[in-house]
Amino acid sequence: MAGSQQSLTPMEPVLRERVEAVSIDTVVDYVRRVISEARDVRCSTGVRNPVSLPGLAVDTLSFDPAITEAIGRNFVQAPSPDPAPSRMQAFIVHPGIEGVSSPLSWDVSKPCHPQRIADVLREAGLDASYFSDLDHWHLYDRTTATAVQLMRDVGHYPPWETGAPLRPFLHWHYAQTGRRLTHCGTLGIGGKGIILAGAGGSGKSGTVIAGLLHGLQSVGDDYVLLEAGSNVSAYPLFATLKQDPAGFERLRLNERLGNDLPLNWQGKHQFTIRDVSTDPVPSRLSIGALLLPHIGGSGRTEITPVGRAEAMIALAASSIYQMPGERESGFRFFGEITRRLPCFRVTLGPDPAEVAGRLGEFIQAGAA
Amino acid sequence: MLTSRYAVAGRGVVSEAFDGDIVVLDLDSGRYFSFTDSGCALWEGLVEGVAPEALLHDGAPYTTDDIEGFVEKLVEYKLLVAVAEPANTLAPAATVEKLAQAREKPEVTVFDDLADLFLADPIHDVDEQAGWPVVNKA
Predict the structure, then answer these.
(1) Tens digit of pLDDT at every position of chain B (138 positions)
(2) Beta carbons of A309 and B111 less than 8 Å apart
């Protein structure tokens, strides 16, 4: 690895002038160059949008209208934190903006392993992820907390980007602080809550929405911020909710949101917590249990203990693979979360109000 | 095989223990693994460098063939590799106690849920063996 780094300096002039593709030998210089270009952008057409998150203030400058809109719509803005938060600058850029070069492709003649690339970048204080179909890059400098999302042109990003904008940057930042973006749902009452984990189709999102519709609170579904301090805490980041058409109808969301809500890239309706609940999103939930939802039959909702190994797998599975890098530390983190919480299986009844009521009783009874 | 020393196959193989259960995750393939009660105890001993034959004991619910088959599977799944160093001949006391309490034959269960997610998630839709950014065909 040291050899790779030593070879970077003499390669930099070549990279600047002629290299058309990035390899493990040049990726550090490339990431630094793109970040430097973005920081120097001077263009009045970009939209500045401040985002206030738990312990973090993000100043975004976006030149992509859809991502700009998503940043404005899909975050849960945190109250002003005390003490003063960390700061991040995030640039969403593409060529055509003065000073921004076209994104380079990866040099496919020199394939190498993702973990090796992550190691080389991390030694330089950097993170990056690359979506090859679109030459779409997320680049992050840990030292200066500067983030760059570089795309070929406006709209040239993977379709999931708008649901959880800035997600890789937030993952990299919070992982440094010992917290993790986690793929799970949450429900709570009066500051106490549960996390819901499971694969797609387990009923996790439907349960969160059912709870919101019937008086429970949530700090988010899909991606929330977990902290394993003296207690396990969950903090809100994204307000995004999703539901497939069948669940949308079952929860009678069409009566609330209409029938014209478009489907996203997953074939799901996408909306926000604010669309289904007028209660403010709590700034934190103290988590008392990890629940694995399972769509049941026609009976009432049942909550029964489940082994920690199974619970760990349910919690860690998608969280680890939906965040670039940091896989081993993620596995350890979710192991720690699982060890601290009692774990239960929830066999969901068919009536959303009954499901919400049962979970509300469970949380209030202190089992959570 | 019974006198060899084994080690975890690489940094991509990680494990966590919960109340006597062990979850092993192969970060490269996305597959995870769990064991029966004797399998958990054997895994603990094997990753400490204990020779398989040193993990046999009177009254064990498994035979020499069972333990050989178990180790073969762990090697086949690329969770363990044989190493040249001499193996330990004594198991840690905690492992011995777990082995004595075990009631099941040593077996490993493979879960492909993570692998499915890995393939289905386009963010990580790369071939780990060929490397980034070779895209999986699945």
Answers:
(1) 889 999 999 888 999 998 888 999 887 777 889 899 999 999 999 999 999 999 998 888 899 999 999 999 999 999 999 999 999 889 999 999 999 999 999 999 987 755 544 433 333 344 444 434 344 443
(2) no
Domain co-membership, A228 together with A91: no
User: Which whole number is the average pLDDT over A145-169?
Assistant: 93
**Do A104 and A168 lie in a common domain?**
yes
Strands A185-189 and A136-141: unpaired
Domain containing A88: what range?
2-176
H-type helices in A18-148, by residue range?
27-39, 65-74, 114-123
Instruction: Give the amino acid at A296.
Output: G
Residue A325 has what pLDDT?
Answer: 61
Query: What is the per-residue pLDDT for A81?
Result: 63
Question: Per-residue pLDDT tens for A195-211?
Answer: 999 877 788 999 999 99
Inter-chain CB proximity B16 and A129 less than 8 Å = no
Question: How far is the alpha carbon of B127 from chain A, nearest alpha carbon, in Å?
Answer: 9
- Residues of chain B in contact with residue A158, where contact means CB-CB under 8 angstroms, are 122-123
Angstrom CA distances, A67 to A182, A198, B3, stand at: 22, 28, 60
> Are A17 and A115 part of one and the same domain?
yes
Please check whether residue B134 touches A, CB under 8 A.
Answer: yes
What is residue A23's predicted lDDT score, i.e. its pLDDT? 87
Measure the CA–CA gap between A205 and A70, rounded to whole angstroms: 20
Query: How many Cα neighbours within 13 Å face the side chain of A64?
Result: 25
Tokens coding B87? 């193996």
Tell me, yes or no, if A328 comes closer than 8 A to chain B by beta carbon: yes
Inter-chain residue contact B14 with A328, CB threshold 8 Å: yes
User: B135 vs A158: CB contact, 8 Å cut-off?
Assistant: no
For residue A83, pLDDT over 90 is answered with: no
Copy the structure tokens of residue A173.
Answer: 């930042």
If one counts the domains in chain A, the total is 2
Please check whether residue A324 touches B, CB under 8 A.
yes
- Asked whether the beta carbons of residue A313 and residue B117 sit closer than 8 angstroms, the reply is no
Identify whether residues A166 and A197 lie together within a single domain. Answer: no
